Every structure is written in C-alpha cells, then in structure tokens.
Amino acid sequence: MQNNSDIKKFLSELGLDNVLNVEQDLGSGYVKLRISEAERRQSLQDIKSVEDIIVELLRNSRDAGAKNIFIGTKKIEDKKRYIYFVDDGQGIPAKFHNLIFEARVTSKLENAVKDIYGFHGRGMALFSIKLNVDDVKIFFSEEERGAAFFLDIDLNKVPEKKDQSILPQIVELDGNLNIIGGVNNILKTLVEFKLQNPEMNIFYGTPSQIIMSMRNHAKGLNIYNGFPKFDEWESLQGYLNDNKKIKVNFFPCLTENYLVLSKITEFFFNMEISERTIQRIIYEEFKSIEPVNISSLAHLNTIENKAETGGKSIKIESLSENNEAENINYKNYNNRQNKNNKNLILYDEQKLALRFKDEEISDIIKELKENIKKIGSKYLVEPESNIDFKKDNNTIQINIELKEA
Known about the structure:
By secondary structure, this protein is α+β, with helices and mostly antiparallel strands. Helices cover 30% and strands 21% of the residues. The chain contains 11 helices and 17 strands. The protein has helices at residues 4-13, 35-40, 50-63, 125-132, 186-196, 207-220, 233-242, 258-269, 275-282, 333-340, 358-376; strands at 22-27, 30-33, 68-76, 80-87, 105-106, 113-115, 118-120, 135-141, 147-154, 169-173, 176-180, 201-205, 314-317, 381-383, 388-392, 395-399, 402-404. The strands form 6 sheets. A 5-stranded mixed β-sheet has the order 8-9-4-3-12, sandwiched between helices. A hairpin with a 5-residue loop joins strand 8 and strand 9 (147-154). The protein starts with a helix and ends with a strand.
C-alpha cells in the first residue's frame, strides 16, 4: 500500500498536488481547506484588537488585487466602532457572501501569501473577525466590482488603542522608510501597510469624507464626467444592473441629486449621512481627504545625526507644528516628539460636546424650559420638572418629557 508521500508525489506529477489540501471545491475558485492545511497556514496573530481587524481586511483587499481602499470609521460614545470598508478588488460572487465567513473557506489555494503579519490564505481571517464582532456584513460585492463591508465592533470585547489621533513618526535610514515609536493605533497600522504595499491607495476618514473622496478620486482619474448622472433611484439601479463592470467605489459618482446620493450611501455602504451633509458633499463644501501618503504625514523636518547611527545618515520626518529644521539628539527624540506632534483627529471624534460645562448646559435647558412653558400654555402642555441631558462626542442630547398642564 502506498504511503501518503507517494500519493502526494504522484498527484504532483499530474499537476494535482493541491488536491489533498482541499476538503470541498466550492466553485469559482473558492475552496474549503482541510483542517491540516488551514493549521499549516496559521497566522502569527489572532484578532485581539480593532487594529488586527483592519490588518486582515487590508490583506484580503491586497490579495483580491485592490488598488484603492476606502475606510470610513465612526465611534459611538466610547463603546462601539463602526467601520465601512470598501475596495476595488476582484469582488466576491453573491453566492459566497455568507460562505466566506465560515472557517477554512478561501480563494487562495494556489496563491497563499506570507508577509510581515504571517501566513495569509488559510480561510480563517473573516471567520475570526465574525466571531469577535457584533456584526460584519457584505453590503455589496460582485465579481470584478470590488466589495463594501460594514463592521459593528463592541470595544468592550475587541479593544482599540485609546489615542487614535497620534500619527506615527517616519524615519528614512539609508534610503529606506521606517516607523519609530508611536501608538499602535489604526493610523499607524495603515502607514505600516502602505510602507509594505506602496502601490496601493488607502483613504481613511469619516463616512462623509470617504464618499467625497470616492467622487474626487474619479475626478482625479478624469472619468467622473464620463458617468451618467441619475435623478431617480430606480433608473440608477437599472443602469448598474446593465453595466456590470463599474466598481462599487464609483457608485457615488452616478448622481448630482442629494436624495439619490443619500440612497447610494445607505443601500450600498450602510452609511447614515444626513441630507445636509450629503448636499455639502455634492457642492464640495468641505475638503476631501487624500490617500495615506508617507511623505505628507510630516512637515519635512530633516534631522541629520550620524554619530548615533554608526556614521549612517538618518532623516526623521517629525510632526512639528513649525516647518523649521532643528537639530536634536536621536536618543532624546522619543521624549520630545510628544510635544511636537500635530494630531489628526477625525471630525466625529473631536468630542466637541465636552467643551460645554454641565452648568452651561443647565442654563440652556432653563431657558429652553421657559420657552416651552410659554408656547405650550396655549396647548395646555408643559415640560416635566426634570430634563435630562447627555454629552456624546459632538452631540448634546436633551430629553424633554411633556405633561398636561
């Protein structure tokens, strides 16, 4: 009786050496690996943080041939993180939208990738993400059209770095860019991935910034005006059904009507963006974000220090608020960089509501209460004596209960 190695050798000679690694052929290039093969491809890290989730999503997009990735994010109080992840890769056939979240299902039988994060292609990344988050869904994906994911992450279950605003420090050593120090937050994760994959564009911001960037990216490619513009949602859907080669990241380019754009953001990306903000996107009333760019992360403060690097030339691009170069000792750099950092804060995480003191809000409520009593008298309605309020990021929520006068 032949042993397993003889069988593998025989199958290899026939060009069928991967047969023993597959438990089930799912079609369209997707397979379910045997447990032994999935274990052989074991990743170096499991999902332990939001940053780990970002890494796995980025790797999936890279392996799907994506060149442009759009990551929208929104934090709800300090309890949840929403992630809207869109790429222009190969896309996922509709019949696999649920299957890819099962263990050992992958399209990477022939081209599993080994990178700085470990082995990728064992069919466990999306499975691990699904186990750890409150919700993960594909809101749109078809073959050759990219993919749009939505993730709802409970930060009590999957934590993230507390300070998501600090940018990493970029060091150029003998012509090679490196990252030193800093917080291992989402921004640093994106910069690290960009260093490893310089050919990819990664856009990162709030949902509204991401939609604006999708539109402006198309304008930069000089293809925006080539798209038809629809004023009716049904007409746009019919056009997309007839034109199967348009990538999902170009969908926001198909209208100048704020009601239709609002439907696009909700239906394809699960983004809840106010109608006023949608109008601001169309009229370009705020600045679009650019893709993560290593050189633009700093004000090009050049520091030369050959003594500390054995005679090698080292350039540190710091995040100083002024643009003048200053000579500092490299050993003391990490101690001083916190004073010089220029933080990048997403608008919806600025916590503007916290700038109001409780007594100031109480004064606002007192005046509001008097106005309600005055106007409500003709309706025989008045406010309850106690009016609650809650400060949440950029929102002050005032709850007013009414009663009959």
